[in-house]
Structure formats: structure tokens, C-alpha cells
Amino acid sequence: MGRWRAPVRPGSQYITRPGAERLRSELDQLWRVERPQVTQAVAEAAAQGDRSENAEYTYGKKRLREIDRRVRFLRKRLDGIVIVEQPPADPARVFFGAWVELEDEAGAIRTHRIVGPDEFDMDARYVSMDAPLGRALLGRRLDEEIAIELPSGRQRLTIVAIRYQRPPG
Fold first, then answer.
1. What Cα–Cα distance (Å) separates residue 163 from each residue in 1, 77, 97, 134, 141?
2. Class of 14-83 per CATH?
């Protein structure tokens, strides 16, 4: 068994200002706070002697590798992202950053925001533009119907509103 892994398709490069600030904050927390603390703990554990049976040393080195991996990822990601702050020229269509109200076949309405893959976990209503629902919505117009495949079967949704400002509530 080798170390080769299938290449991962990179996520979209678009992000909102709050999403970019969250990534920068995480990078700052890891680099300026956590890494120095873990490095100090590893140094103290190493000073105790035999490293082969020292759990604090082993765990600390593992945690350092995790922090360094995440820091490398965040730096690379932040270098390549495009912060989208302006609404599109055609606000009648669904583009990145849009708040979209969808009505299902039963008449229930739900609201989603199209965001980048780095920020969909910031709010339960956020949907990544790379997710099946996000891809199905991009470029669509008001009153268009979309169909998406769900584990429970095909679902039809109608776009009933598109906004680029946060809806109330």
C-alpha cells in the first residue's frame, strides 16, 4: 500500500468577506497561538528523556504535523481565493452570494445562500456552489424550476425569490 492518493478536485475559488475573515482568523489562531503552545509542550516532553514511550511527546509531534498541514492548506487557499463583495450585473439570476427562496412541490419554502466551499458550514442555510443544489441553482432565473436527485428520489423546486442582501430573520 503506497502513499498515492487520487487527486482531489479543488473547490471553487470564490468566497464572501466573512468567509475569508474566518479563514484568516483560523490561520492566525493556529500560527500565533496553538503552534507555539504545542511546540513548548513538545520541548518540555522531550526534556523528560526517553521519547519512544513518552505519550505527551508523541501526541505533541502528531498535533504539530496536523497544525502545519492545516496552516499550509490555509495559506495556499487564501493566496488563491477571490473575495466577492459586489452583486452581479444581472440580479435577476442566481450567482455566487445570492439568497434564493425555493418552493418545493408541497408548497414549503426554504431559503439558501450560495457560498464557497470553505464557508458552507457557517450557517445551516448556506449551500456550497460546488454542491449539487448549488450547481443546479447557478445561472437560473426567477420562477425557473429545477430538479435535483436526493437519496429519497427526485425533487422539484421552484425559485420564488432571489436577493443579494441578507433576508430578514
1. 50, 28, 9, 15, 12
2. mainly alpha
Q: To which residue does cell 424550476 refer? A: 145
Where exactly are the structural domains of the chain?
14-83, 99-163
Q: Tell me the whole-structure pTM to 2 decimals.
A: 0.81
Task: Tell me the torsion sign for CA atoms 119, 121, 122, 125.
Answer: positive
DSSP-derived secondary structure letter, 141: B
Q: 87-96: b or e for each residue (b if 16 or more CB lie within 10 Å)?
A: eeeeeebbbb
Percent of the chain with pLDDT over 90: 69
Give the closest residue to 167 by CA, choosing from 121, 113, 119, 128.
Answer: 113
Average pLDDT over residues 79-96: 91
DSSP 120: G
- For 5-52, how does the pLDDT look when each residue is reduced to its tens digit (9 = 90+)? 776 666 789 999 999 999 999 999 999 999 999 999 999 988 887 777
User: In CATH terms, is domain 99-163 a member of 3.10.50.30?
Assistant: yes
Which residue type occupies 14? Answer: Y
